Amino acid sequence: MFTERVYNFSAGPSMLPEQVLKRAASELLNFGGSGMSVMEMSHRSKAYQEIFDETKALLKKVLSVPDTHEVLFMQGGATGQFAAVAMNLIGRTGKADYAVTGNFSKLAAKEAEKYGQVHLSCDTSATGHTTIPAQRELSLSTDASYFHYCANNTIYGTEWSYIPDTPCPLVADMSSNILSRPVDVSKYGLIYAGVQKNMAPAGMAAVIIDRSLAGQELPCTPTILNYKTTIDKDSMYNTPPTYNIYMLGLTLKWVEEMGGVSGMEELRELRAGMLYDFLDNSSLFRGRAEKSARSKMNVTFTTGDPDLDAKFIKEAAGEGLLCLAGHRIAGGMRASIYNAMPVEGVKKLTDLMGKFELANKI
Ligand SMILES: *Cc1c(COP(=O)(O)O)cnc(C)c1O
């Protein structure tokens, strides 16, 4: 039982900024004098359309989305996009390149295999996904419809530090690092993100697509996953996840108040720096990922002893530092330090790690 809010290090759904939750709470029963909750509003009402338009405009502004690109809100999370990307884009040449650097990129590649020929540009499974390939190590096809990669590997704690240079449109799964730093959207054909890591409550994917890529979908593509239809209907072919979009709008306002994506980047450098500095100087804990591939959103680490890891996770939970267990396929610990994680939460974590190290050193 906690009487106060905890520091939740969950990989997702994860922490939302406290200001965002408070604002949502204050507007829960009566939004802006409408006499109803946003949850209860018709998606065709004027009041809701304003929320929708504002959220979309804010995402464009915060990420500096160029006019060539459209912002879409779709259901089915990031996993829905594994299918949507392939069904909508692979038809041009019937082939696509996939970089496999972790679990989600592997699932994305497997999904795409249903709809066309998939070429693996890299596969880091041999290193236990502790690495990210260099540009020169990528095997690139000359006739791929697109190149897909996962910009931040949530489970293994690695992150691409560069934008791959490819002869075809670039598609990125940015579920776990979107809005955490500036990104040159014009370099991408398509960016998608499940919103539950850095943006909003679970239940939606944000998609940013170069309009010229839409309209080449396979005939079997369900209308609900069709990018062209979604663009034409402004994400309202059917009832959109209205409350998620409203919550995303509140988060985006918070990001703006905090200095935009540059402000988020400063915070992310600070949080990750604190944790990795501690790990690099620790005689008990060590980081899992290779230094050059380290993620600044999901920090994976271990003592090397599963029992000691379990003891640490339990002690941390007692101190209000929750969900530090690594993903079941990676083991050890994982601290997910997304945009909404306060720096004080990371300070509390490194303080506890220091104490634990003193008490448990052999
Ligand atoms: C969480 C996550 C997913 C899966 O997201 P869902 O919305 O649950 O489908 C996919 N890719 C990455 C990088 C993730 O972090």
Overall description:
This protein has helices at residues 18-26, 46-62, 77-89, 103-112, 227-232, 242-257, 260-280, 306-318, 343-360; strands at residues 7-8, 69-74, 95-100, 117-123, 147-150, 152-153, 158-159, 170-173, 190-194, 205-210, 286-287, 298-302, 321-322, 333-336. It is of the alpha/beta class and 362 residues long. It folds into 2 domains: 7-14 and 259-359, Aspartate Aminotransferase, domain 1 (Alpha-Beta Complex), CATH 3.90.1150.10; 21-257, Aspartate Aminotransferase, domain 2 (3-Layer(aba) Sandwich). The strands form 4 sheets. A 7-stranded mixed sheet has the order 2-10-9-8-5-3-4, sandwiched between helices. It has a 3-stranded antiparallel sheet with strand order 11-12-14. Strands 1-13 form a two-stranded parallel ribbon. Strand 3, helix 4 (103-112) and strand 4 (117-123) form a beta-alpha-beta unit. Helix 3 packs parallel to helix 4. Bound molecules: pyridoxal-5'-phosphate. Pyridoxal-5'-phosphate (PLP) is lined by residues 12, 77-79, 104, 150, 154, 173, 175-176, 194, 197.
Could you name the CATH homologous superfamily of the largest domain? Type I PLP-dependent aspartate aminotransferase-like (Major domain)
Helicity, as a percent range:
25-40%
- Residue-averaged pLDDT, rounded? 97
The value of Rg in angstroms is 21 Å
In DSSP terms (H or I, runs of 4 or more residues), the helix count works out at 9
Largest pleated sheet: 7 strands, mixed
